[in-house]
Amino acid sequence: MTNSSDPLERLEHHVGQLFTAGVTISAVTLAAGLAMFLIAPEKPATNALLNAGLLVLMATPMLRVLLSIVEYVRMRDWFFAATTLAVIVELSVTVLSALKIKN
C-alpha cells in the first residue's frame, strides 16, 4: 500500500489492485479455457472456464463500484457514497433484468 494518508490515493491504489487482480484472473481463466477448447472442445470444463473468465471480467467493474462505496463511507464523503450507491443499484437492476429476460 502507498505510504500516503490521502484517502483518494488509497482509493486509487485499491482500485488499481482490484483491476489488476480481476484482469489477471480473467485472462488466466480464459486462456485455460481456450487451451482446453483447442485440445478437447467437448469437455464441460472448457465452457465452465470460458464462462468463469467472462464473468470475472464483467464483475470487476461492479466490484470497483462496491469498493468505492466502502472507501467513500470511510472518508465520510456522503455525496459520493450516495451517488456510487445509486450506480450499484442501477447496475444490479440491469444485471437482474438481463438474467430474467434470459430465463
Briefly characterize the structure.
The protein is mainly alpha-helical and 103 residues long. It has helices at residues 7-39, 44-74, 78-102.
Question: Can you give a write-up of this model?
Answer:
The chain has 103 residues and is an all-alpha fold. It is built from three helices and no strands. The model has no long low-confidence stretch (mean pLDDT 90).
Secondary-structure map:
Layout (H helix, E strand, L loop, with lengths): L6 H33 L4 H31 L3 H25 L1
- Global Rg: 17 Å
What is the averaged pLDDT score?
90
Q: Tell me the number of strands.
A: 0
Largest sheet: none
Give the number of helices. 3
Helix content: over 70%
Shape: flat
Output the helix-strand order. HHH
The poorly predicted ranges are none
User: Whole-Å distance between the termini?
Assistant: 43 Å
Return the domain count: 1
Label the structural class. Answer: mainly alpha
Q: How much of the polypeptide forms β-strand, as a percent range? A: under 5%
